[in-house]
Amino acid sequence: MAVMLLPIGLFFVAQHYQANLQIGLALQLALGAVVGLLLPSLMLTWLMIGLTALGTAILLFGYVMIPIPAKLLLLAAFPIMASLAAVIRGDLLQYRRLAATQTEIERYLQHRDPVVTLRTTALAQAVYERSRELLQAGVFLRSLDVTIIHWEHHQQYEQFHLEEHDAFLRALAHELRTHRLPAEQFFYIDDATFLIYSYDLSEHQMAQLTQTTRQHLAALAPVQPTGLKMGQAHLTQAQAAKYDFHRLLHHLVRELETDIVVEYLLEAEQ
Q1: What span, in angstroms and rounded, lies between the C-alpha atoms of 264 and 203?
Q2: Could you give the CA distance from residue 159 to residue 8 in angstroms, rounded to a whole number?
Q3: Three-state secondary structure string covering 138-150
């Protein structure tokens, strides 16, 4: 708004002077706008100092037949317009940074869940498809175990205890990252469901790791009113072609239906 008011006000004042002065004022304003938008601030500052000094020497100390107010008007037009244009440029750059930051935030939220800070379904699918290709090639990857962990009936708990609900999901994610293997990959695929990819583990290693995970989940269970369930799928080279990501998820959900609810595990083990 100030950029628009400035030239309008200066031209209103310049109406009292000759046409050649009005043309000079217009050129000063146009030059100030272009320079203010294009030049870096340091170069702009030195340019304003140099041109103002030169203009002062010519208009005020030289023999120019122009009224003193008109001279001051010409001297002030360029630096003021250039300064305002530089401010506008700074605002535009700041807006671009904010827009870029907003885009980065949206991209982050698409790939990482903000509650548990784990990668989400899109990345889980991409990593699985790449792992499936390697598994089918049979060179760098011989087996893939996929573990699913689901918090059953969490929606009812979420409706009345949202903060506690999210806190438990974060605690669960922390337990998995702490007590599972560093080489494993963890994902959160919404609906209080976690996926874990485990590569090239023997049957004994996987069984031991699963038992350890169940124990930690059982330790977490008393802090929330519903249970946790686990399911697993073991994929070899021959099985890789059979299961795409969606079919794998369907198989894992079926596995959950046969799993024992974790809240009863401790009682069963005793």
Answers
A1: 25
A2: 59
A3: CCCCCEEEEEEEE
- The answer to whether 187 and 248 are in contact (CB under 8 A) is no
Name the one residue in this structure whose structure tokens are 């005020």: 60
Cα torsion through 28, 33, 36, 37, rounded to 10: -150
Contact 108, 66 (CB under 8 A): no
Q: Which amino acid is at 189?
A: I
Question: What is the tens place of the pLDDT at every residue in 217-229?
Answer: 877 765 555 578 8
pLDDT tens digits along 69-90: 667 777 777 787 777 888 888 7
Find the radius of gyration of the CA atoms of the chain: 35
- Quickly tell me which residue has 């169940």 as its tokens: 214
Block residue for tokens 């994610």: 173
| Nearest alpha carbon to residue 199 among 172, 236, 248, 231 | 236
Q: Which residues contact 106 (CB under 8 A, 6 or more apart)?
A: none
Which residues are paired to 196 by β-bridges?
147, 186
Count of residues making up the chain = 270
Exposure on the CB side of residue 172, measured as CA atoms within 13 A? 32
Under a CB-based contact definition with an 8 Å cutoff, are residues 260 and 268 in contact?
yes
CB 3, CB 85: distance < 8 Å: yes
Question: Are the beta carbons of 166 and 115 closer than 8 angstroms?
Answer: yes
SS3 263: helix
